Structure formats: C-alpha cells, structure tokens
Amino acid sequence: MKRIAEMSLSEIRKAVRGSAQGEALHRYVNKMPLWLKKTATKLVKEYKGEASNIWNRCRTAGEVIERLNEFPGISQKKAHMAARILHEEEEVEFSRWGDINVAVDVHIRRVFKRAGLSKDLSVGGIMHAATELKPDYPGELDHPVWRIGINWCHPRTADCQGKHEEDETPCPLSNVCAKNGV
Prior knowledge:
The chain is mainly α. Helices cover 45% and strands 0% of the residues.
C-alpha cells in the first residue's frame, strides 16, 4: 500500500490501462488511478497499510459500512456487499447485522420492481422494502435477489419458468411474483 501511495498518478494510470489493447485492469481507466492512490494513502495513514484494519475494532456492521463509505469509489452497493461478505463468508463478528442491507444495483432494482416488492425504486426505497421483508438482517436478501436478477429476471424479459436453464428450474419467486399476475 505504501508503494502505491507513493506512486505518481501517471504510473498508476499506466498500470491500470495495461500495455496492450484489452489488458486494462478496470473499465474506469481514468477514475481508478485516482481512487487507488487515495485509497492506498488512506490505508497507510489511517489503517497502517492493512485493509483488515478497516473492520478490526469495529463493534457494529454499521461502523464497517461507514468506514468503507469513506473510500473513493465505494458506494452504498459496495459497502453493504463487503459488510455482508465479511459476515457470511469471513465470519467476522460484529453486532447489529441488521445494519447491512441489500446492495442495490440494476439486477436487484429489476427484481424488486417486477416482483412488486417496492413501488419506490430509489436506493432508499428498495432498502426500506428489504428492511420490511427481513427486519433482523435485510442484507441476507442481497445475494439471492441478485442471483434471481442474473438467472431469471433478465433486462428485457423475465424467464420465470427457467427455459434458459439446462434443468429448466423456475424462478424461486414465480409463485409470488407480480409479473406473473400472482
């Protein structure tokens, strides 16, 4: 982290762009170098150059989300998703896991809209709807809803019966989805 923090933006930009066409490390080749430099500098100055120090000593999931939101390029989506991954996959212990909500993106927004789970499709509206559906831990809805958006609830059409799947598995929401008139 210290090395990246000390690099020039032009050096970081060159690394992000790659040496040949199609080798870019990220699609935001102009924004990412600045985000990387600012993030590395913040990690060195505030967290001793160690990313895990962001959540070590946090008591609540909300604290983790607040700290992550302080980094450039991190938004509601990435902060909540990272907190959920820490909880579910890394088994980091915090209190108030209910502070973690769905990481709203186009897939989650589409499923909430088509299934009639929220009339307000703003980030706040969807997070409110997720909290009403799962008050103790709305973030638990994040991954399954995202998978439904990827596998069945496609941008142009919904594949409620799973015709694209080899095993033709219907969408888990097919019996309760407003799109199906249920």
